[in-house]
Write a structure and sequence with these properties.
The structure is a homodimer of 351-residue chains. Chain A is of the alpha/beta class. Chain A contains 15 helices and nine strands. In chain A, strand 2 and strand 3 form a beta hairpin. In chain A, helix 8 packs across helix 9 and helix 14 crosses helix 15. The first copy, chain A, is globular and about 60 Å long.
């Protein structure tokens, strides 16, 4: 089994830097666009055979070191009774803005509300047969609240920020419910076979450090604690948060995933050696010529060369129009680390 | 004349911390909404008497320490031949995405393309009669390019990021043209009477440090250099850029304006004593109860109490639905610094 991804999560020696790509099953793949011509996004997510087919597509093209289940962070909100559509961005039937609405949210078990996700994880594990590990995931409570309160994706997510200052107790109540639901949801995925989980905090970077602990980080910590007994590595991806790194590292997660804003050597110095790092090539860098992609990817890799625990990835999801040749250049840059590591630290590969 | 704003820009002693508010003439004021019922946004900007009337509105309500001319950062792009509408966000007639389009941009003098801005500055100076200084402003080249290449405001401004990696020379050429136009535009405003100028870099925070110098900062530095002989303080406002502060401080500007993400004491430690700081209360904090607004504003003020050169402001433009009572609480918090400074550093007020 290819376990270099799981080993890197635990800061153990690896034969080369592992690579996976956020949104690796996505619109930049012609075969994904073909699949989507036949089936809408929600049906794709909710049909285990189709979700698994999408999850496997990038692995057929590229020697990636992890597979991630095809889904969306908002989907498990159905366990709270939230209804939504995607066109292509998410739109909730109704924003959640009052204490009454928060109190009215349901708390159904994920196994009942979104059983198809567990089925898909099980099927994906079987199909992969140990070739790569499977990553499960969920949204972080503040990020989910940002969508729930806004009712859709919107630059700045003003509605949740307004609630934070105007009705902090209401927001706290919402975050508590989301934390319970996401803990249950990750436990379901792990029980079904997920070998690592990632918590996506796409919008925590909208908060100053004074608000981050209370409205974002403590709830992430509760989720990490709530799955700790299951023994799988946890990745905490926090986007747009160069001002929060010293705090974010205290989430308890094994891996801190970073957007492209902070160079990895700077991040490593700030967070210390006790946590693995994931990232962080700018997704837009893949629009450069292949030779420049190689150079930019090598730059990211070199910034933490020799530091135990690096998982190569983009700093955000891969973009729809990304050229396939760029992904190939990224893959080649990562494969070159096998030679580099063999040359500079021969003992690291065999211990 | 009330010169505490200008003195703070130069890190000279002041009797209390000066305050102005980004977008202080805006939709949170009933009298502004009344004005806008009679006249559309572009007409308001382009009619000096109306622009001045809008600029004066917040000063009638609040004892603010600076006035800023009512306009929009995209307006002087008309000097490059760019046409746009506002509804309410900006929309360009055509995005600028190719080298041919960049080469075709005009370079008319601002005095010819947007003479109404200079007229408005002159009229505002006359109306104020020394009561508060007048601030002129422009957009920073990268931020203007973000709008020009995208064609509108859009989260992430993917189009300019794609151009940056795919056609860096084309983007460089565009930035060079924008730099020349904005230098000319600021010189026009200063010649008309602007006593300080602010350069708004709302989107430079989308760049990693590796790209920031080449595609944003060097052009800001060129503008700062290009108006240096005129002797007015320059404020460089860079939004969402906690990862860029050590670089941003080298722009040559007298004042660094910050969004709410970085606490001012942290920022002060990172940028050193040689530059004044402006900001940085979260605009959403004004949705809290007045007592909480007072507490949050006092917290911002206390983080740089005793450090020469602080201009109180929000970390971004004031929001349309902001309660007037919150602005009053903010004003009161700033006025309380007169007592604090008198108590703790009596000599500072008289030197």
């Amino acid at each position: 089994m290819n376990d270099r991804f799981l080993r890197a999560c635990r800061r153990q020696p690896v034969d080369r830097t592992p690579l996976w790509i956020m949104r690796q099953a996505g619109r930049y793949l012609p075969e994904y666009r073909e699949l989507r011509r036949k089936v809408d996004f929600l049906t794709l997510c909710k049909t285990p055979e189709l979700a698994v087919a999408a999850s496997l597509q990038p692995l057929r093209r590229f020697p990636l070191d992890a597979s991630i289940i095809f889904s969306d962070i908002l989907l498990p909100l159905e366990a709270l009774g939230v209804r939504m559509t995607f066109n292509p961005g998410p739109k909730l039937a109704e924003p959640v803005r009052t204490r009454v609405q928060v109190d009215a949210l349901e708390s159904r078990p994920a196994a009942e509300a979104v059983p198809f996700v567990a089925d898909a994880v099980r099927l994906l594990r079987r199909e992969l047969d140990g070739r790569t590990p499977v990553i499960g995931f969920c949204g972080a409570p503040f990020t989910l609240a940002a969508y729930l309160v806004q009712g859709e994706g919107k630059e700045g997510f003003g509605a949740v920020k307004t609630m934070l200052f105007r009705e902090p107790a209401t927001l706290g109540h919402l975050l508590e419910k989301l934390t319970a639901a996401m803990t249950d949801y990750l436990r379901l995925q792990i029980a079904a076979g997920a070998q690592a989980v990632q918590i996506f905090d796409s919008w925590a970077g909208l908060l100053a450090p004074m608000q981050y602990e209370r409205f974002a980080l403590r709830w992430v910590r509760a989720i990490v604690d709530g799955v700790a007994d299951l023994g799988v590595p946890v990745i905490y991806f926090v986007n747009g948060a160069p001002h929060l790194l010293e705090d974010a590292v205290t989430s308890g997660a094994d891996v801190l995933g970073l957007c492209w804003r902070t160079p990895l050597d700077v991040a490593a110095a700030r967070v210390g050696p006790g946590i693995a790092l994931q990232g962080n090539l700018d997704p837009h860098a893949l629009f450069a010529e292949p030779a420049e992609v190689t150079r930019l990817a090598a730059d990211v890799l070199s910034r933490v060369a020799g530091r135990p625990g690096h998982i190569m990835n983009l700093g955000h999801g891969i973009l729809p129009d990304t050229p396939i040749a760029s992904v190939e250049a990224l893959v080649a840059a990562v494969q070159a680390t096998a030679r580099r590591d063999a040359a500079t630290a021969p003992s690291a590969c065999t211990t």
